[in-house]
Amino acid sequence: xxxxxxxxxxxxxIAGVLGFFTLxxxxxxxxxxxxxxxxxLFVISFIFGRxxx
Length: 53
Known about the structure:
Elements: H1 2-18, H2 21-48
Helix pairs in contact: 1-2
């Protein structure tokens, strides 16, 4: 999921440089959402993955 976030971030940068600002803002928004979801899942797996029975 972090890979997808980085991919959309790179797409946003390239689109911004080429002047496609609408596409750049959409890709940046998707990248932000994916990054937040990645962080939440990472923290949850870190907390609950360390339990020993």
